[in-house]
Sequence to fold (569 residues):
Amino acid sequence: MTLVKSLDANPPGPRGREPSGSGWIARASGMLTLQPLLAAAFLAAYVLLEWVSFIHEYKGVPITPWNPGLGVMFALMVFAGPRYGAVLFAGVIIAEVAVLRTHLEWWVLVAIAAIFAVGYGTAAAVARRNLRLDVGLDHLRDIAMLLAAGFAGAIVVGSLLPLPLLVEGQLESGDLPVALAPLLVGDFIGIAVMAPLTLRLVLREGLVHARALLPALPELLSWTGVAALLLWVIINPAIPTGFNYFYLVFVPVVVIAVRHGLDGACVALAVTQLALVALLHLYGHDAAAFTEVQMLMLVLTATGLVVGVTVSERQQAQRAIRAVEDLLRKRRAEAAGAARVNLVSGMASALAHEINQPMTAARALARAAQQILRMPNADLRRAENNLATLVTQIDHAGGVVRRMRDFLRRGQPHVSTIEIRSMLDDTLALLVAAASTSNIRVEIDLPEKPPALHADRVQLQQVILNLVRNAIDAIGPYRIDGRIIIAVRHLELPPQIEFRVIDNGPGIDQELIGRLFEPLTTSKREGLGLGLSISASIVESHGGRLWLESTSPQGTEFRFSLPLESPPA
Fold:
């Protein structure tokens, strides 16, 4: 029923505070419009169910072994608040006068209606406020609290209801045990069967639950038909021992509860209860037989509800797990996308870092060549040397871009056989301009016959360039007699080549040593902090390692080693 959507289905917030401002006004206006419709609908339902379910009376007292109207009204009071006890009060009076044709005095009638309204209204309020009952009945605890509140209300009402009847003389003290048993059982079974059904399929998101059951309707009808058939056999007076087989009715109800959870169990129990009452009435069983069978029905109802809510809880848990898994997959996809973006960003930063110096050197050489050619007596040989070095710098920048692109695409370096002396001579040619500007002498210390090395030539040059340029930047403002040594050593155990870059600069700040090879770590004002991180990655991709050997105010030494292996086939 969508007309109850705006009702407060849960207790108010802390200290009973209500919404403020225009939201409160809109909510109050909706409540004023919907409350009369809701009250009228449930009042009509209560009177109709009283007419359908009324079978026996005891000495003129309307005592029935099943009270479905009470279950519907109790669900409304739990859902929307005990103020709807007024609807139950009016319903009792109307049903007594119009349906049951009571002969009770008016004050007794009012007292009975008040006992029903106050007793069950108080039980609903306790369940709603104190027991914190979730009206969605999504957990076993909620079903237990609902049944406990209903049973407590039945005890209270059953204890108080005889009082006005005793005073009026309608009952005698000896009638109490006979009258109270069917009254208590009838009220409680009405609440146990109809209250969960009303809360799940009428009030709290009722359309959602009802639509979910529509595909299973043929199956539900089949199993409830089996239950009705079993009841027909059990209740039939022609089979004296039929009641002994009542436990067979558990099978279809439990199957439905297992298959369709709490919603299916509620429907199955309601249909089973209707069939049971109809058959008992059809075969003319007395009130004692009704009460006896209803005691069995209570056990069946409790079993069906417990199984149903347990299955629903498990289904909810599985849906929650699937939702979390879907969210996790979504987050992983987002993380993968972010990683790809970071990779592209890192590549761009790395390229900017690596080609910055050769392009800066090329620009300086081009300007120097321009200045030479503008002079009256131009030194063409010097200009030609500058242009040749400029081309070398540009070729190196292009090689860096090409090799890094290939490396990122394949994840592995492009290995070839490298003659170490030639590679270092070419590397030194790229450093002459920067070293000369800072008055720094760069020396190469090589064995007489260094072994051939199998590696990516451009990437290896890049590592040496990074280390030497860092040394030049460190020495430049510190001293005028700067010196950098690029030494190569052939180690036997294990077979490897070790490169050493040694400078006489100021050393490295102790605060940076622990995170020297982490990205974005730099002591340069305009540095990106990527050089050593990229160099370490290149060396590691060749199966080697890069480390800081020593640092002091007298200088710094970096080393990296590469294994001597045969080139891949």
